[in-house]
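Fill in residues.
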């Protein structure tokens, strides 16, 4: 698969074309690490505490279990024309 999609109930959807980094207990886990999928799936059902976009750098989402999900939106990390999008129907659409 070339991307991963994060759905936040009725709050919106983020398809990430750059694989996110997950930080749990101070350790960064990337898609090349053993157990990455398990750590990603462990976020399912967790509440989001905050979400921030750092322009030309990253999207950062912090969950109730203190896990931090980071999606790089740096141009040099793009593997496709865009790194991620945010869609909240009917009228919100952001592209990085």
């Amino acid at each position: 698969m070339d991307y991963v999609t994060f759905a936040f109930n009725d709050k919106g959807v983020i398809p990430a074309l750059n694989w996110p980094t997950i930080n749990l207990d101070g350790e960064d886990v990337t898609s090349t690490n053993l157990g990455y999928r398990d750590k990603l799936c462990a976020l399912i059902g967790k509440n989001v505490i905050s979400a921030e976009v750092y322009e030309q750098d990253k999207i950062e989402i912090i969950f109730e279990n203190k896990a931090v999900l980071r999606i790089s939106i740096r141009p040099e990390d793009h593997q496709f024309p865009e790194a991620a999008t945010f869609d909240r129907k009917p009228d919100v659409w952001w592209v990085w």
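The longest helix spans residues 36-41.
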